[in-house]
Amino acid sequence: MTLYLDNSATTPVLPEVKDAMLPYLLEEFGNPSSKYYSEAENAKNAVNNYRENVANLVGCKSREVVFTSGATESNNMIIKGVADYYADKRGKHIITSQVEHPAVLETCRYLESKGFLVTYLDVDQYGRVDIEQLKESAEENPPLLITLIWGNNEIGSLNPIREVAQYCNKRNILFHSDATQVVGKFPINLEDYPGLRFLSLSAHKLHGPKGIGAAIIREDELGLPTKLTPLLHGGEQENGFRSGTLAVHNIVGFGKAAEIALQNLEDNILKLKQNEEYLCNILKEKYNDRVQFNHSKENKIPGILSITFPGVNNELLVKNLAPYVAVSTGSACSTSKPSHVLKAMGYDLEHIRSTIRISMSPEIKKDDLDIFNNL
Asked: Where in this chain does the entry annotate a coiled-coil region (predicted)?
């Protein structure tokens, strides 16, 4: 059986998550926007209860959780919505980085075609932005929005989100972060990040179902949600932020996965760190100087490894490994292109085309990784 090590792309649904979802596919099929009768009320109660679980995972209020189809929609919704609503009030400057997920980069490029000015910050050797460069750009031309990935999906590096949030709070700058990869692998309490107004997340990165995510839209000091133009129009669902009939079964799955992730957070982080160290030691002993690690040892998401085998084509390597282990060449959303993340970190094309990503799950046991001794 293939050892699955591509958890940054997606994760298997936990049995408990599947069991929680099934009744809302079969018996409890009501539309939560309907009224009075039991099917509708049961669906509405389920949405409310499991929304609370998602809120608890990131430390926000349940009414700040807006369900979407996933982080890609959340990124689009927040960035485009903020740009449209505030352009006349706050100007047209957006600050982001060169190593964002394509859902952020392509959205920013779209806005550039509409007359917005986007600054793409450089990154260091581990893919992290320089807070001083960010401040310099913001002081030179105050932005309407700063959007930075919290933890990189290819190399696991963590951006200085707390420092950026503090700066944005002082300067009254709207701040968004794509937190897709860190949720469930890193403790988050948004009460500790007062300047962070928006967050994007996706259920299928933490053993929930595909097709469901959330945009966290924080309230201001008066208890009013931060305003933005909705991406979808046509109904009043999700406080008018996101029209469309709610996918109750997926929301239940997301909420159950969030509940489990929060309960097991400390244990899961420890397991991921131990497995990462164990696998790195195997590869070092087996390949010596024929293997290079691109990720930082510290200040990163545990369990995500960027590994280069100089002179070995990564596509062929992934293909040859496929019968034994499932790994990838990088982001699942840009499989046909060389990694823009590694390029921004200063690596040449030869290095990039010899690099694979391994991303682990807490469900993996150390003994499972011994398969690398025989490959």
From this structure: none
The catalytically annotated residue of 60, 108, 168, 333 is 333
d(CA 72, CA 143): 22
Q: Which two tokens stand for residue 207?
A: 């053993």
337 neighbors 329 (Cβ within 8 angstroms) = no
d(CA 185, CA 266): 9
Report the DSSP pairing between strands 213-217 and 292-293: unpaired
Is 332 a residue whose pLDDT tops 80? Answer: no
Return the CATH number at 308.
Answer: 3.90.1150.10
Mean pLDDT in residue range 358-364: 95
Does 174 lie in the same domain as 112? yes
Q: What angle do CA 368, 374, 375 make, to 5 degrees?
A: 100
| Helix axes 71-90 and 102-113, enclosed angle (nearest 10) | 30
Instruction: Give the structural domain span for 328.
Output: 3-11+265-369
Return the axis-axis angle of helices 248-263 and 38-58, rounded to nearest 10°: 30
Backbone angles phi, psi at 252, to 5 degrees: -60, -45
Q: Is 333 a catalytic residue?
A: yes
Residue 161 tokens read as 């989100």
Residue 14's alpha-carbon distances to 21, 192, 258, 361, in angstroms, are: 11, 30, 11, 12
Residues facing residue 119 across a β-bridge: 95
How many helical (H) and strand (E) elements, i.e. helices and strands, does the chain have? 12, 12
Q: Give the integer Cα–Cα distance in Å for 84 and 79.
A: 9
